[in-house]
Request: fold
Amino acid sequence: MSSATKQVGSGIGGWVGHMVDAAAAIPGHYGNLLAKRRGRTIALTLLGLLALTYPLIYNQFLAGLSRNVFPLPVPDETTMTFMLIFGIMAIGLNIVVGFAGLLDLGYVAFYALGAYTAAFFASPHFGSISIVLFSNVVSGFPGIHLPFWMILPMAVLVAATFGALLGAPTLRLRGDYLAIVTLGFGEIVPVFFKNLAAITFTFTIGGVTLISLQDVNLTGGPLGINPIDPFVILGVGFGATSGVAAVYFAMALTIIGIIVARNLERSRMGRAWGAIREDETAAEMMGVNTVRTKLLAFALGASFAGVAGAFQASYLGATTSDFFQFSTSILVLIMVILGGIGNIWGVLAGAIVLVYIDKTLLIWLGQRIGSVAPDFPNPSQFNFLIFGILLVVMMRFRPEGFIPSRQRAAELSVHGLEEAETAMGVDVETDNVSVAPPGQAELDREAELPSDLDDL
Amino acid sequence: MTTSTMDVGLTGAIPDDEILVRTRGVTKRFGGLVAVNNVDFDIPRRSIVSLIGPNGAGKTTFFNMITGAYVPTTGQIEFDGQQIVYMKGKKLRSRKPHEVTAMGIGRTFQNIRLFGTMSALDNVRTGIHVHLKSHWWDAIVRTPSMLNEEQSSIDEGMRLLELVGLERRPETWARNLPYGDQRRLEIARALGTRPKLLLLDEPTAGMNASETRQMTDFIRKLRAELGLTVLLIEHDMRVVMGISDRITVLDHGEVIAEGNPAEVRANPRVIEAYLGRGAAEA
Reply:
């Protein structure tokens, strides 16, 4: 940013010109990095290439090896897709929790809203009507069938709207109280979807019946809705049976999510969120419209879950309210905390690691153990126990997460900060390492506690 | 260095067009406690006015009403010809703090409240935030206008850091700056809001003699170079007497004295409020 001293031209032409300039500058930046921190740059490049090609490597080579020669704990296509679906959610939750510092325990609600948006508008569920638009479903087929590029914006819109609706009553709440209200919302939405299978409702004013519903099945109840159309581009579907194609589709969504979150972080909105996280009262006094800024964090964070939910529903071809338990909210929150709250790459890593443990490692372990000792309990039953232990261990030894944000690292430990900056390639400036005398941290924490208007 | 103080009139005796802040009958009650009682107060443009008084006199409460953090129980507050407090139905309402900031009031805090893990420059740019126009969708697609605005906010932030003497370490986190620098950064952040009125809540608290002198010189410089009006809460009497054009003394929420430094110093009610009845009689 600081290098962009020249003014950027206005209008579409200016934007295109800027993007071309930015793209042209990438090889130069990369060369610089390569010269400055050779080992790290090469390692990250290889890691990136591996991430991009892994689905193909798995598909061509590892899957066969694992099936025919020796069972390996390598993630398969479904696991990879879910890694990315949860990655998108973790990036979204990180906007709310990491950037703006608002604890949201009801995040699964937006995941559910996204999934049901896809279910309503791309399935034969509403069989009495037939709307088929730009879809490869045969025209005249019962139900509403919209293409994914209409479903995704709708899911974003629905989730963001409800995100703002959830945000509105919580604006005056801070800390624990905020968490409790969001928790309530996260419980309400799945129950809502579970129970709207037979709505009978009449609304009459002055003898005139305005609304009359008889046994309307809106959400399919506990059975849910299926089949949901997969996303399709040029005849290629991205359902669960498409294997590698779905992984790459999810990867594209994730990359868009990373870019959006990163651009938001590096803007006046990102600074306003940081200010609210640090000191909400001071932020308000410095001209930050805290109401609007917090609502924006809720809405934008929720829209990521909307996208993830819509893709998940179309990927699996079905959705039921069972997918959207409170434990899913907690799981995403654990991903954010373990990965490194506030850091986009960290939370993505958190999602990948936890989904890997949950869907590949524990199942593989179960099979290995089962082949030796069939009576031994299957470890995948204890996934949350294992996540809990992992969380406790991490909090003890590396509380700032796998790839911490600089803020979190400094808050939690001097040591962690140095490591984080080394890991992230930021020069360790001694300026930014608070060398506090023993006990100072506790004093600081105490000083932070009463942050009400009274001590202005 | 001593600059002659401006000769400014007393509350009620200043021509309207020279008044930046005017309060009439401002009262704030917290339950049964009257924190501020019926305060009339005028601040002339380009003046440095101090608000003093013993602990608990209601100075900070008064500050908080001007900035919109508290709604007065009764009274009027007018800033630059606009009402900060207004009636809505039968209830007295106040503009929100961020709206007041946008009108042109910047402030610092008694106990420093910087955004600790944000860089010095980003702290100042958060002050500028209220004057930036780009939306979140501009941020996502990096529109040229957003990028130019970001760049100009960096330039403005650096200029302000230079003004307070912090330009050499713009990337340092606020919490890692020395105490005196943090005080100055808070002023730079307040200046980022492009204020007409700067409210300083004990700007020299915790400073030694030479830092204090630097700070008072700096406040004078702000008025001279930026044409700011400054309202100051301060306990250090040397600072107050040296810098103020006019001093208003609060005690138990009421104005007990008003005038230039010499008048206030000689006022028996002020001596009584600070030192007790015996001292005033002696």
